[in-house]
Specification:
By secondary structure, the chain is an all-alpha fold. 75% of the residues lie in helices and 0% in strands. The chain has 14 helices and no strands. The chain has helices at 2-36, 53-67, 80-90, 92-115, 119-148, 150-169, 174-202, 208-212, 214-236, 246-252, 256-263, 272-277, 281-291, 298-313. Helix 9 (214-236) packs antiparallel against helix 10 and helix 13 (281-291) packs across helix 14 (298-313). The longest helix is centred in the N-terminal third of the chain and has 35 residues, at 2-36. The chain is elongated and about 110 Å long. It starts with a helix and ends in a 7-residue tail after the last helix.
């Protein structure tokens, strides 16, 4: 142990001597440089990192980026009440679809007795709506929606549903009944495609999910209303006093939601996104103004219009 302590003291003395000598040599070099004025020496501590202005700027910028929240486009310019009202009007045709599904379950037996239908004919009359609805969806979901617009497609669907409901209620043969179901099916397919796309395009992102769900809500509501209405009409024998079979009254009422749609269709604006896609910015701005809050400024509308133009440029039509 004594030898070890002596060794440590000797090494410590040598280290302090070397440190003293090195510091003395550094000081002598600095004094010599100052005297001759030829060399400028910057003394730095070995453990202290040198200052790099570029690195400090990068770190400051990155920390600022991490702290600053990303700017998101505001949607305060759009009125939720107006948008909800327009979306509700656009899905009225889906209530007609659901009504027909619910009413036909109550009217099937009297229809079968009236026209003396076979089981095959009865099954065809019942399911014809779905077959023709598929054809209507294929017809309208492609070129018709892109060429003539969402609003005109909804109007065409309403006319088809009105004509189909009247044709079924006034049918005097199996063939006339099938023609009425054909018109109803085409109207259902058109409205199903057009209403979903229309509501999606006018709705702000924060309300888009709930507003698009109105399509399914309208169908299920129509089924309940159709079943209950047909039951009440049959129970009260409504129409007998005018020599009209109750099932004709029930099936004719399926045109009522589409008639209501046609009464208020003037307040239905065209889809701004479709108008931008068709290079009609002035009409698109008018549509946006009909969906905007009363206190929204022209700058807000112009910003929303520019945002629509950017998103439309990133999409393509079904023909691309």
């Amino acid at each position: 142990k004594k030898a070890w302590h002596r060794y440590r003291r000797a090494s410590g003395d040598r280290q302090s001597c070397s440190d003293h000598c090195s510091s003395a040599s550094i000081n002598a070099s600095i004094q010599n440089a100052k005297m001759h004025g030829s060399v400028e020496i910057m003394a730095t501590k070995p453990d202290e990192p040198q200052h790099n202005p570029l690195r400090s700027q990068d770190s400051t910028a990155s920390s600022d980026d991490e702290r600053a929240p990303l700017a998101e486009p505001t949607e305060d310019w759009q009125s939720s009440r107006k948008t909800f009202g327009v979306a509700l009007l656009a899905v009225l045709n889906q209530i007609a679809f659901g009504y027909d599904v619910g009413a036909v379950s109550q009217c099937l037996q009297p229809i079968e007795r009236t026209f003396r239908l076979t089981q095959l004919q009865t099954g065809f009359v019942t399911s014809a709506l779905n077959y023709f609805a598929a054809a209507g969806a294929l017809m309208v979901s492609g070129a018709l929606l892109d060429r003539y617009g969402r609003r005109k497609a909804l109007i065409a669907a309403a006319w088809l549903l009105i004509a189909g409901g009247i044709a079924v209620a006034a049918a005097n043969s199996f063939e006339a009944l099938v023609i009425g179901r054909l018109l109803q099916g085409l109207g259902v397919g058109c409205s199903w495609s057009a209403s979903g796309i229309y509501v999606t395009e006018i709705a702000p992102s924060k309300l888009r999910g709930s507003l698009v769900a109105l399509v399914d809500v309208a169908i299920n509501l129509g089924i309940i209303v159709g079943y209950c209405a047909a039951f009440l009409v049959d129970a009260t024998q409504l129409g007998r006093s005018f020599s009209i079979a109750p099932w004709r009254v029930s099936m004719g009422l399926s045109a009522l939601p589409s008639l209501v749609f046609m009464l208020f269709v003037i307040s239905l604006p065209e889809s701004p996104r479709w108008l931008i896609k068709r290079s009609r910015p002035i009409a698109a701005k008018r549509s946006l103004q009909r969906l905007a809050r009363s206190e929204a400024s022209d700058a807000d509308i112009d910003a929303a219009l520019a945002s629509l133009g950017e998103t439309v440029d990133e999409t393509s039509s079904w023909t691309d």
